[in-house]
Amino acid sequence: MHIGIKRVYDKPEPQDGFRILVDRIWPRGLTKEAARIDLWLRDIAPSTPLRQWFGHDPKKWSEFKRRYFAELKDNQEPVQQVLDQAKRGRVTLVFGAKDEERSNARALKEYLETFGHHK
What we know:
alpha/beta
């Protein structure tokens, strides 16, 4: 399973493979052509209340991941879509947040790599 992550504002490259936008909201200032998104999976993003609670506060990162993983456990359909696509080839989870170390895409990648092989 080859899953990468990348900011949507970084230049799309062929080695990205299948690009999946994993944010609930379309990235500000980008056209669909410029973003080169193959699939927009809004439903895999953290819930709006969770996203607002987190607010990209580094002190809340561990708790954010715990809560987000619980949401993902109860929302397996989009998770399975990503896993199925990753079995076919490289997938890049694309996101808009400035903090690459504490983005929902990084948490999702960790979730998929930890729990995805059980599928």
